[in-house]
Amino acid sequence: MHPADIEKAHGSPSMHSFNPFELESTNTDSSHDPVLELKSQSKLERWLSRFNVEVHGVERVPVNERESLTASSSLHMFLMWFSMALATNNIIVGSLGTFLMGLSFKDAALCAVFGNLLGVVIVGYMSTWGPQSGNRTLIVSRYFMGYYPSKICCALNIFTNIGYSMINSVVGGQVLSMVSGGQISVLVGIVVVAFTSWVMAMFGMRIFQIYERFAWLPQLMVLCVMLGSAGPHFDFNIHTKYSQEHLNAKRVTYFSLCVSIALAWAPLAADYYVYYPPHVKRWKTFAVTFLGCGKAMVITLLIGNGIGTVLASSPSYLVKYGNTPGGLLMTAYDSLGGFGKFCAVINVLALVANNTPGAYSMGMNFQMLGSWFQRVPQPIFTTLTTVIYTACAMGGRNSLYQIFKSFLPLIGYWVIIWIVIVLEEDFFFRRAKGYDWAAWDKPQKLPMGIAAGVAFLIGWGGAIVGMDQTYYSGVLAQVTSGSDLGLWVGAGFTAVVFPPLRVFEKWYIGR
Fold it and tell me: Which residues contact 122 (CB under 8 A, 6 or more apart)?
């Protein structure tokens, strides 16, 4: 998934010479023998390498293979984050607050900005582990949750990426269908988006990295066009019809939703920096991630808030374009004719760019599940998951708004529980002791994970008690007029139970 996470391909001169950050190589390891590495690869991996398909696994990047930073490195990473987070699906999330939940623009905007910034702070924190460890985010998780419990997070992140990829594919398919005047069906549009994402994840990660450095410009220009077209129709005076009690519940729910969409990047954040040297200041890594990701997401969420007010106050647009996410985007370009359709296609390209990291990531996550999975080349898993999310997109294409509303909180529940464990393990138990990053694949040198596993399950119990979804409403949600408190109750339960459990585990087991 991760564009900056590209290893130097074995036996491929063109990939070997490619520098993911345009950094100056500091690799002086004379023992590096491409011939021996080529022999260690399977026949399938050698065949895939001939086509410049990435076949390297999840191994730690040793210090002598890291890259020294140049003056432009931070700018490149800022632009990469900005491009990836300047995604069309964030506009859809923004519209949920004003269109589906019935909040005023002011309420929705405040929830979007502060909820998103809170989530991006966590993403920035997790990104700092990349240079420190040379390991991907969910490999680093083994030092906090233990070797085996951390695999739960890998599995959950696979489902997270499948869900996001499905959503992106459906939105892209709907837009392509509307732009073509129905000549392209939504099903065909879904296949086009999914196939393009797969091709980029399999063969085009070098091109994708370069693309992300420049993609923000056409994306931002299209968003400016969208704002100029739809902005005059934003209804800043639309008022909610809820009582104060129900209004507060909607505010809490939407705030949690906006936190969750940012948290989805946390299990991936360190992956982009595994080639950075360990002496990089943590605050610099944090700042690049926070600013790039945060700015892009706030822009798109606020635009979505505004377009949502157009749909909420002007039923004629619903009649013309329908109440689908694809219809939402076409509403924004209503007065622009053919140029508006062209801009909508650019939005689809942004969806593909946002989809590609997820397609690549799922292959990595599968390999993190165990040694058997590591023997399977990553492209096989990338292909398998692409088939899965394409099929899911086809089945759920008519219920996308409801999937959005139900799916995003589930991401937030597990990620916030995991983050609490990471923070408490780091600050209370590990920071003074330090980390042996070379032990990433040695279970006997990592925490047993019993305390983390139990705390994770108890945290999920808290999320269930506080959640409010169409399929289930917890006890606390029911007594608070339908507030979705799953994110916060889950985090609270985990924060309370993990420290004593970890103290007991260290005393009884010794690690």
Answer: 262, 263, 266, 419
pLDDT over 60 (residue 28): no
pLDDT band, very low/low/confident/very high, at 56 (cuts 50, 70, 90): low
Residue 17: Cβ within 10 Å count: 10
Residue 281's contacts (CB-CB under 8 Å, 6 or more residues apart) are none
Say if residues 16 and 57 touch (Cβ distance below 8 Å).
no
Mean pLDDT of 411-419: 93
Bridge partners of 24?
68
Extract the runs of DSSP E, i.e. beta strands, from 204-311. Answer: none
Residue whose structure tokens are 């916060």: 488
pLDDT, one tens digit per residue, over 102-157 is 899 999 999 999 999 999 999 999 999 999 998 889 999 999 999 999 999 999 99
d(CA 191, CA 223): 25
| Cα separations in angstroms, 480 against 187, 256, 287, 437 | 40, 15, 37, 45
Percent of the chain with pLDDT over 70: 87
CATH number of 3-399: 1.10.4160.10
**What sections of 58-182 are H helices per DSSP?**
73-85, 88-95, 105-127, 129-133, 137-140, 142-145, 150-179
Is the pLDDT at 54 greater than 60? The verdict is no
Q: Determine the average pLDDT of the residues in 401-424.
A: 86
Q: CB-based contacts of 507: which residues, under 8 Å, 6+ apart? A: none
Angle, alpha carbons 300-303-307 (nearest 5°):
135
Looking up tokens 């969910």 gives: 138
**Backbone phi, then psi, for 473, in 5-degree steps?**
-130, 120
Cα Rg of the chain (Å, integer)? 23
Q: Specify the DSSP class assigned to residue 134.
A: S
pTM of the model: 0.84
Residue 20 has pLDDT above 70, yes or no: no
Residues 6+ positions from 233 with CB-CB distance below 8 Å: 310, 314
In the chain, the amino acid numbered 82 is F
pLDDT recorded at residue 4 = 41
Residue 476 has pLDDT above 60, yes or no: yes
Please report, for the chain, the start and end positions of each structural domain, with discontinuous segments joined by +.
3-399
Q: How many CB atoms lie within 10 A of CB 413?
A: 26
Separation of first and last alpha carbons in the chain: 33
The residues, any chain, with a CB within 8 Å of residue 17's CB and separated by 6 or more, are none
Highest-scoring range by mean pLDDT, 60-74, 133-147, 209-223 = 133-147
Q: Are 153 and 145 in contact (CB under 8 A)?
A: yes
List the structure tokens of 64: 């002598």
Q: Which residues of 208-247 are buried (b: 16+ CB within 10 A; e: fewer)?
A: bbebbbebbeebeebbebbbebbeebbbeebebebeeeeb
Question: What pLDDT score does 15 carry?
Answer: 31
